[in-house]
Every structure is written in C-alpha cells, then in structure tokens.
Amino acid sequence: MIEIAGRAIGADRPPFVIAEMSGNHNGSLERALAIVDAAAAAGAHALKLQTYRPDTITIDADGPAFRLGDGHELWGGERLYELFERAHTPWEWHEPIFDRARALGLVPFSSPFDPTAVEFLEKLDAPAYKIASSEVVDLPLIRLAAGTGKPLIISTGMASVGEIHAAVQAAREGGCTQLAVLACTASYPASPAESNLRALPLLAGLTGAVVGVSDHTPGLGAALAAVALGACLIEKHLTTARSDGGVDAAFSLEPAELAALVVESERAWQSLGSPVIGPRASEREGLRFRRSLYVVRQVRAGEPVTGQNVRSIRPAGGLPPAAAADVMGRRFTRDAAPGTPLTWDLV
C-alpha cells in the first residue's frame, strides 16, 4: 500500500487511474488545460506531465544516433531534438496546469528527466514522481527523486530483471518508502500481444512494491486485464481528440474512453472478490428457484409415481431431480395436489 496526496493505493482499493498528458497539448496551453478538464470530468484520479526541455534530455545534433529509425510507426526519421521540442510541456505552463488539476480534485505530478526538473517540481510541491522507462537506468536520478521523500513510481519498459532490481534498490537506498512499479511496453503504439501481463505477479514478487501498468496499447482491454493480474495503478495517455493529431495522439484515449476505463477498471477490481467457491449472498433468492421434483397433477393414495404425475420443475423444495429414478414406480402414501413438493414421506 502507498499513499499519494492522501489517496491510498493498493490491492484493497480500486485502481488509481492516471491520465498522461505528454505532448497532447500540441503546443497550446489552452489545449493543455482542456485536457486537465477532460481528465477530471472522466473521473481520473491523477494528471501527469513530463518535465524536460529539449536541451535537458538531448542535444541539438544529427546523425543516426540522434534520429528515430525510418521504420518507426509514428516518428520515423525524426531528429530527437525536434521531437522533444514538439512534445515538451513548457515549464511556465506547469503551475497553471497543476493549479487547474488541484482545483478539479486531480492529483498533479510529473516525470522529471534530469536534476533541474526535480528541483523545479519540488517548488511546485509535486506530491509524487514518476521515473520514465528510458530513465530506469539513470540511478542517480532515481536516488535524487527518492531523496525528496515523495512516493516514487518507476516504469519498467525495456528493462531487464537486473535493471529493475538496481532501480528499486537505488530508490530504497535514496530513502523511498512508498514505491510503485509499472509494467510497460515502451513502444508507441504498443501491441497487446507484447504486453506480457502475466508477468505482473512476478514483478510484484521481484520488487515487493505495489504494481501497475503504463499502457500504450489501443483501447481498454490490456488495462482491464492488468487489473485482474494485480495492477493497482493504470496510466494511459489522454487527448481531447485523436483526429487532431499530435505526437502521442495515435495511442491516446479520448475523454469518453477514459471515463469508461475509470468505471470498468473499478468494476474489474470489484469482480475479483475472494478466492471462494459457493453460493453468494445475492444468490440466496435464486436458490429458491432451482429445479426439484414436484407433483404436477392430482394423485390419490396408492397411485404409482410416474413421469406424468411427477416432474422436475422450478422451484426448489422437493427431492433433487437425480432422485427421479429412485421414486418412479413407488406409490403415493396419501393424496396430493398439483404443486406439492415430492418428499420421501409422500412415497
């Protein structure tokens, strides 16, 4: 169990749904604030940003190492610097975004990508920090974020078991006492077939942390399946409309989809229940209407039991249907009207 901004997050609570803005503001503060409004209206619990500048995450260089591969589905051939220039959220926007989110009941926080981002977010009193998948190997950054005393969420896309262990150890050594670890496939968009959600219980066992999913697949299916496997946090990108385009639009939810995720993830969590088999309390009334053996026409004492005067019908109250073979041919001990449950003392 961890707690972020007074909200408990764990297996005995509904999933904590995080709306990730990323670059879906498309360079407009007005649109960014509209995404905040949409996240709140959809019932999300948190709004997450990414805090970097192009110059704090890369350099303005060219060459194969500084370009996305030509085959990338969304950003093929684009220079890293230009991509981050388009996608970054200006730092001067953070305060109005945080203020709007808090006013609407959302928990605003961010992913810092270097020490200056942590310092900046501390001034905004960010209640938690998220370490992005590509930064899971930046152990000094993890230790710095952990040293703030805030809850830490680490995304594990692309990471090996050894790298995850090192990141968790760095967080703990840095002073983190409230840690969540997210399964993630760091491709954009991600294929559901590569989600490997059955690894969630393994991730929980490996890290001893609350687990969740940072999901870049289309739709809601993977996120809801993750709940069944123990995910306590769900992070999905949010845009006001995919048709508007933008760096993340193709793998982002629209507001109505996010609202459905909030509702259905809680239903999925509720449906997990307990590891018990047997009638539920709500089924008590239904038990009255199981099939049993009943007299279905007027009979007289001494008359034989046949398939015409006794049948398996609803409701319960008579002998079980399986007893039919044992009672056929016996004789009634007394008169009985239609609708009389067949009991052993009647034959």
UniProtKB/TrEMBL annotation:
Any GO MF annotation of the entry: N-acylneuraminate-9-phosphate synthase activity
UniProt organism field: Nonomuraea cavernae
GO biological process entries: carbohydrate biosynthetic process
Name recorded for this polypeptide: Pseudaminic acid synthase
PANTHER family, alphabetized: N-ACETYLNEURAMINATE SYNTHASE, PSEUDAMINIC ACID SYNTHASE
InterPro entries with a match to the protein in the record: AFP_Neu5c_C_sf, Aldolase_TIM, PseI-like, PseI/NeuA/B-like_N, Pseudaminic_synth_PseI, SAF, SAF_AFP_Neu5Ac, SAF_PseI/NeuA/NeuB
Domain AFP-like: 292-347
Gene3D superfamilies assigned to the protein according to its UniProt record, in alphabetical order: Aldolase class I, Antifreeze-like/N-acetylneuraminic acid synthase C-terminal domain
Domain of life of the organism encoding this protein: Bacteria
